[in-house]
Amino acid sequence: MPRAHLALDLRSRASLFAHLAAMERAGVPIDRALAGLSLGARHEAAVKRLRQMVGNGRDLASSGQLSGVFTPLESALVRAAQEAGELAQIHQRLAQRYEAQARQAAELVSRLLLPAGVLLLALAVKPLPALVAGNLSGTGYLAAVLLPVFWLCALLFGARALWRHWQQRRTDQPGPLDDLLLALPLVGSLQRRADMRDFCDSLGLLLEAGMPVLDALPRACGAMRNVRLRREFATLAPRVAAGQSLVRAFDGLRFPGKAMLIGVLNTGEATGRPGEALLHFAHLQAQQLAASQQMLASWGPRLFYLAVAGWMAYGLLSGGGFFPALPAELAGR
Known about the structure:
By secondary structure, this protein is mostly helical.
């Protein structure tokens, strides 16, 4: 049984496919290429399973999925590329795809480090007035600082685990969270754009690898995280099977950038390269998504700083450290 698709992170996937692309261009056999592959101790067990399966005579696509190194979509891409003789090109495209996504994720994390530091500083400063006034012991001060940090960390890791579990669901039935995410003003737009990018990127890669469109459409739908959107785009394959062109099938759906996609896909079908047109549209979607994420990462911390500053000011003014309260016997006179 293949393992879950969390074995490799984005950076490791980029390194994996960049290595495979370089070895393929150099004409190195796959068993020797994998012998020189290193993705760190964390992923060594998965890479070892991949080497063993390839050494036992399995092809790279099947070995990758069974070992848990490849996702089903990556396995389908590699299998189609094997049949079309385009392995180096597909490896390179996947390496570029994951490198870009890893870079965007790293930029977002780096932008969030400073707000996290400001929050920790605020948690350390807020109990200071009570400590100065003598209303809080040293142990009490540490507890007042460390307990919120503990609960925030628990909340963060819990939310991250739930998010990963939600993304890896294997169901065709949309849940309340799918509809909620799409209904949120900013998050819904980012979710739609990200799923459109992944769908068109995956479909374009599959078509460029030589896979028939009716086989490629269901696999590309599997790249979409939101089940509601996945069900909507699953209607493309029956329309194409009924005789509609890919452009006309897309015209029956609603999604951001529809007019742009119809335009580039018309040109792609006219030149016989719909996969290339889809990849171009996915690149444009990725640029717009990155711009939206950068704007959010720029304005989010500013609003966060303002909220934390107000919270700290309230704590300092109301805590009694700088404006101690009069004793009760004096206050009653």
